[in-house]
Amino acid sequence: MTADAFPALSGLAYGGDYNPEQWPREVWDEDVRLMREAGVNLVSVGIFSWALLEPKEGLYDFAWLDDLLDLLHANGIAADLGTPSVSPPAWFFHQYPESRVTLKDGTVMGFGSRGMASHASTEYRGAIERMATELAKRYASHPAVVLWHVHNEYGVPVAEDFGPRAVASWQRWLQNRYETLDGLNSAWGTAFWGQRYDDWEHVVAPAATPTIVNPAMKLDWQRFTDDQLRECFRIERDAIRAHAPQPITTNFMAHQSWNTDLWKWAQEVDVVADDHYLWSPDEDAHIGLALSADLTRSVARGNPWMLLEHSTSAVNWQGRNTAKRPGEMRRNALSHLGRGADAIMFFQWRASRSGAEKFHSAMVPHAGTESRVFREVVQLGAHLKDAAEVKGSRVVADVAVLYDWESLWAHDLEWRPSDDLQFRERMRAYYERLWRDNVTVDFAHPEDDLSGYRLVVAPTSYLLTAAAGENLGRYVEGGGTLLVGCFSGIVDENDAVHAGGFGAPLKDALGLTIEEFLPLREGRTMSVELDGEQLGADVWAEQITLAGAHVRGTFVDGPGAGLPAITRHEHGAGTGWYVGTRLSAAELSAVMTGVYADAGIAPVAHAEGLEVVTRRGDAHDFVIAVNHGDGDAELEITGTDLLTGAAIDGTLGLAGGDVAVVRTASARQGGDRS
Questions:
Q1: Mean pLDDT of 160-181
Q2: Same domain, 37 and 152
Q3: 143, 379, 481, 606: which one has the fewest Cβ atoms less than 10 Å from its Cβ?
Q4: What is residue 673's predicted lDDT score, i.e. its pLDDT?
Q5: Is the CB of residue 625 less than 8 Å from the CB of residue 635?
């Protein structure tokens, strides 16, 4: 991944998945005319086209794709050319039935849906390499092709495979990781329940068992599965690179899919890309959107990234698929832009009449071009053209939130002290508090260099390596402010409790350890007293053993009544805060007052629902303001609104649901990490 790997387009990328193979040829001409009207300059093609591109094994047919790419280029529209490996054709599974995915209960998955074949299948790996090679050789110099799109949403809808080939690959993977059976037995703690192995062939997959599978085994299985998916990606990527010069990507699903470790995946792609869909039950889904966007920018290490898919209105695969309100699509798009996306794209261009996603919204909906959705699509295209100079600018944050997929995998395994304490919920609660305080954040891995941040927040770090604990200790000692949420620093990389007990790797940074967990029964609540204020808490309490930390908050009632709940510890030149219970985003506000003071951060008060993010450019800064509320809002700012051309002299007024992209003078000060 490099900063200059973004597709060669003159402005911001705008468009979406285009599946013309679903339509008669005459519709294609109408499509490109409407794309020009909407300002579309990039479409993703070929992603689900294996059956058309290779109708029989070894027989390739590129005539229709030649026609399509020529048509797009003639109309000034670039192509993100996909490899169709996500959906092998019927003939492939008929010819190679052993390439089908096997579930943990032994069920073999059939054809007729979507999803990759067994990641361990040599036939599948060979077929995708040949297809990628043929595509790259044919289209490497086609003027329409500016980007290669490998596969589609790795790990969705299927990642794990428990078939015999996958098990054989698993055994080889373990031998490479541990070298000896003694090493494996030690890492997995197989002395427990008499699980010791004395032959590699005896190490089966963690499939259906009488009771809980060894958690260290399951954690390694997740790592193995992720590595196998990444191997399949590299097969196609390297086949393309042997012939084609354009950048290569695949579409992540940051915080929405948990099968892939995006810190590792981001190192494999030339440009980071993400798909994001609102979660209908979430009435503040724009906050979840911001979380995913910040996480995507962070795994891209601040480089420009691409939103390859989101929806113009409702999706079709949730229990209740709520339509977006008027203007919501524009707000969603501008939120992604504000958080670093230089491409705003959708699934898909034209709504499908048939198939499983016929009720999924599209840029051209079933209602046609006279619809509100299409009018908003055209409006958004004009906005992105007006905001083209934002491209290449960067978001710079003073706060980092720690996010580790391996900790997520371990945290959410079975037999934890409380099912109610979940990684995703804790991540969202702390992030939402920061969002509502108008604090822009990066995400970071616990072993990253954190020295450039004033504040580091670790909402949920159940798995924390000794190296990460030392890293956080150095960060605090060097003058940083660290805030850690409950149930953190509990186990090492093998899901084994740290020597020294719960919280041992954070003892220096936080001045405490945890003697015992005190989870609540379902539905019970309790109170925490902090600075004379009582905060509501639920689910979780801990018996904290102080080792230098000072008590700031105390459990008023519940299983931890009278015990420390919130602590502050001075370590070197910095401070470490700990919250030993589950507080909502609203209740965390009282905690953050002291944390912000220690970090030297002054949150800016905006109207409820007003999202403001700054992107820094070489000559100008760009402030993206999105009013998610229904009421009017004001923002103190001077500059030019690129969307309207209006000069802003001190105060920008935004009606409910409105947006603005304001070019301001660039003011560089000390401490700028850009």
A1: 98
A2: yes
A3: 143
A4: 42
A5: yes
- For 321-349, the three-class secondary structure string (H helix, E strand, C coil) is CCCCCCCHHHHHHHHHHHCCEEEEEECCC
Q: What's the pLDDT score for residue 671? A: 40
Q: Please, where are the H alpha helices in 97-139?
A: 122-139
Q: Residue 274's closest CA among 384, 152, 453, 436?
A: 152
Q: Both 472 and 357 in a single domain?
A: no
Residue where a domain stops, chosen among 552, 568, 599: 599
CA torsion angle 169 171 172 175 (round to 10): 160
Domain holding 618, by residue range, is 610-665
Residue 560 CA: distances (Å) to CA of 14, 504, 540, 552, 556: 54, 20, 9, 15, 8
- Give how many domains the chain has, as a whole number: 3
Asked if residue 183 belongs to a domain, the reply is no
Nearest in space to 28 (alpha carbons), one of 60, 67, 66? 67
- Residue 114 covered by a domain: yes
What end-to-end distance do the CA atoms of the chain give, in Å? 18
Which residues have a Cβ under 8 Å from the Cβ of 80 and sit 6 or more positions away? 7, 42, 43, 44, 45, 146, 147, 148, 149, 249, 308
Which one of the listed residues 153, 376, 432, 542 is annotated catalytic? 153
Q: pLDDT for 189-207, tens place per residue? A: 999 999 999 999 999 999 9
Domain boundary among 546, 575, 599: 599
**CATH number of the domain enclosing 405:** 3.40.50.880
> Edge-to-edge strand order for the sheet containing 251-252?
248-249, 145-150, 78-83, 42-45, 13-17, 341-346, 305-309, 273-275, 251-252
Same domain, 384 and 315: yes
Spatial separation of the C-alpha atoms in residues 490 and 471, rounded to whole Å: 16
Quote the pLDDT of residue 482: 99
Burial 607-620 (b: 16+ CB within 10 A, else e): eebbbbbbbbbeeb
Dist CA 310 CA 362 (whole Å)? 10
Cis (ω within 30 of 0) for the bond into 157? yes
Task: Indicate the SS3 state at residue 46.
Answer: coil
Same domain, 339 and 260: yes
Domain contains 615: yes
CB of 100 within 8 A of CB of 109? yes
**Res 666: pLDDT:** 75
Q: Mark whether 549 and 586 lie in a shared domain.
A: yes
CA 527 to mean position of chain CA atoms: 33
- Torsion over CA of 183, 188, 190 and 192, rounded to 10 degrees? 140
Sequence-ordered list of residues with C-beta below 8 angstroms from that of 282, at least 6 positions apart, any chain: 288
Q: Does 487 reside within a domain?
A: yes
| Whether residue 24 is found in the same domain as residue 126 | yes
The answer to whether residues 367 and 42 touch, using CB atoms and an 8 Å cutoff, is no
CATH of the domain at 289: 3.20.20.80
Same structural domain, 573 and 658: no
**Active-site option among 54, 309, 432, 493:** 309
312 and 442 share one domain? no
**What pLDDT, on a 0 to 100 scale, did the predictor assign at position 674?**
37
Distance from C-alpha of 368 to C-alpha of 353, rounded to nearest angstrom: 12
Whether residue 129 lies in the annotated active site: no
Active site residue 309: yes
Omega cis (within 30) before 543: no
Q: What share of the chain is helix, strand, coil (3-state, %, to 5)?
A: 30, 20, 45
- At 117, is the pLDDT very low, low, confident or very high (cuts 50, 70, 90)? very high
* Measured distance CA(380)–CA(17) in Å, rounded: 17
**For the segment 305-363, what is each residue's pLDDT rounded down to a tens digit?**
999 999 999 999 999 999 999 999 999 999 999 999 999 999 999 999 999 999 999 99
What DSSP character marks residue 417? S
